[in-house]
Amino acid sequence: MSVFPQRLDSPLAYDIARAMLDGFNRHYRLFRTESARAKHRFETADWHGQQRAQRERIQFYDLRVREAVTRLEKEFRAGDQPMDVWQQVKLHYIGLLVDHHQPELAETFFNSVTCKILHRTHFHNDFIFVRPAVSTEYIENEEPAAKPTYRSYYPTRDTLQDTIERIVDNYQLQRPFEDLPRDAGYVIEAMSARLAQVKLRANFQIQVLSSLFYRNKGAYVVGKLINGFNEVPFALPILHNKQGRLIIDTVLFGEDDLQALFSFARAYFMVDMEIPSAYVQFLRSLMPRKPRNEIYNALGLAKQGKTLFYRDLLYHLRHSSDKFRIAPGIKGMVMLVFDLPSFPYVFKLIKDYYPPQKDTTREQIKGKYLLVKQHDRVGRMADTLEYSEVAFARERIEEELLEEIRKFAPSQLEISDRDGDGHEEVIIKHLYIERRMIPLNIYLQEAFDALQAAAPGSLAGQHAHDQIERAVIEYGNAIKDLVSANIFPGDMLWKNFGVTRNGKVVFYDYDEIEYLTDCNFRKVPKAHNEEEELSGEVWYNVGPRDVFPETFGPFLLGNTAVREVFMQHHGDLLDPAFWLDRKDRILAGHVHDVFPYDRAKRFARRYAAAPAGAGALEFTA
């Protein structure tokens, strides 16, 4: 149990706490300013600027932590202060957070700065916030000019369309809509399936968050319909059309659609938030199954996401007894992967030794993971949480896993009683953690086995065939989405892709990725003679970034069922012309549209010939 001083008698402790909070306030002010500028970038169609800002904002936190450490060392020689002063620093800091609007983020900032100054390399000690000390419940900005977290609208059956228009108008986008009344009509028509035969209760209302959510080329209204005991989450994507005017592209309904929009495989949103915890609370009401750490991540607050994830892991370990093991599936050449069966994440560490065909280094691999963190992941690359010096109880590690780490990554392993509490710990020096998915090769093999076991023409056989078809189509779609984002996966084997709970195929092996624009896509040269043609060796010159799409087939399409589906839907991936065309468009400055929803949902497809204002909705009383 922590022992804190009875009295706060160190003036220096207060000054350190105040300076620490000044550092956080500067960080959040800059973070919020950059997020708010996303509105102007959207209005002016500055897509490259939006991508650049999303990349650069990720680095804000570490820069501000370094600034704060430098100031505290320079002004207070903070690292030389005795522990009783640091205990008082924490208590003063808690006092300063009582009326703060981002207390949970400020606590995490305190942890980051304190661990650097005190050279604490693990989470358990008296001088940081292992648990939150200040509540985030019911925080609101009471200043008269402040925006509320969300706005509530109270339409009637006659004013619903006007209300949708007013909701969108209230965001004051400085660019004209092509036809907002028409689009609002489409939104109302889309709502009809949920509301047409429903009695509107006394509390019927629409609640929307006060700031738009910006990402890539889209801006999203996020809210919910409330009627009686029912709440329906929704989002309205606002895009530019080809003429540069704004349109509401579709309406997304329900938790699954919102989960896809806020997926861990997508880039972070830019959102101007005074009180982030209130946004998280509202979003959790729309997606109750989504962990809070993933919502903070989606809002660009990745350090807070890491803090919450680690607290969730510690809590889970306290309430479980299974052991960490080598993850099922084909072992990687570069990454050693393990998991805890009861916990839906995998843990990855970089090996010390790689086979000769993997010409890489630890620093290069870390660079690839950083590239993915800062890049637009377009729903096809899993986000990763990166940790250093992670301690696990020795008794929770299977012996086989420990031996694997000793064999392949000894530099990453320490076994000691670091806390001095009599319990031995396994400490991993550097670790990536990401959502667990079913490896695509295992997913397909399960379908092959089911197909083989099923009677001809049976329902089970059809189900297995459908599973293969969906997976192969999704695999090709995943590669094409990555290509649109200027990413060449490098190693395209099935084992490097995973299947999410919703059947989405996501890439998760990053050690060979390259920018598409850095690759040379070539046709395999014609053989000069029969000897070259029949040779099992490559007889032509291959540069370090040369790619021969025709050669993908033998590695990927050995199974007949897979080959048929692949060639029908994605045969163009075996043609260098496909890759060269995408590369040329990216080099010309084109930013592709990659939608976080099925294109079939787009109003432009559903109402191609509909007149303006179509879609008025009648409600029953």
Automatic annotation (TrEMBL):
Domain of life: Bacteria
Catalyzed reaction equations: L-seryl-[isocitrate dehydrogenase] + ATP = O-phospho-L-seryl-[isocitrate dehydrogenase] + ADP + H(+)
InterPro entries: AceK_kinase, AceK_regulatory, Isocitrate_DH_AceK
Transferase recorded as keyword: yes
Pfam families: AceK_kinase, AceK_regulatory
Binding-site list for ATP: 327-333, 348
Keyword list, A-Z: ATP-binding, Cytoplasm, Glyoxylate bypass, Hydrolase, Kinase, Nucleotide-binding, Protein phosphatase, Serine/threonine-protein kinase, Transferase, Tricarboxylic acid cycle
Isocitrate dehydrogenase kinase/phosphatase (AceK) kinase domain span: 322-598
UniProt-annotated catalytic positions: 383
Subcellular location per the Swiss-Prot or TrEMBL entry: Cytoplasm
GO cellular component, one term: cytoplasm
Record-level GO BP terms: glucose metabolic process; glyoxylate cycle; tricarboxylic acid cycle
Residues covered by the Isocitrate dehydrogenase kinase/phosphatase (AceK) regulatory domain: 17-321
One function term, GO molecular function aspect: ATP binding
E.C. designation(s): 2.7.11.5, 3.1.3.-
Family of this protein: Belongs to the AceK family.
Cited function: Bifunctional enzyme which can phosphorylate or dephosphorylate isocitrate dehydrogenase (IDH) on a specific serine residue. This is a regulatory mechanism which enables bacteria to bypass the Krebs cycle via the glyoxylate shunt in response to the source of carbon. When bacteria are grown on glucose, IDH is fully active and unphosphorylated, but when grown on acetate or ethanol, the activity of IDH declines drastically concomitant with its phosphorylation.
PANTHER family with a match to the protein in the record: ISOCITRATE DEHYDROGENASE KINASE_PHOSPHATASE, PTHR39559
The protein, known as: Isocitrate dehydrogenase kinase/phosphatase
Native species: Ramlibacter tataouinensis
Lineage: Bacteria, Pseudomonadati, Pseudomonadota, Betaproteobacteria, Burkholderiales
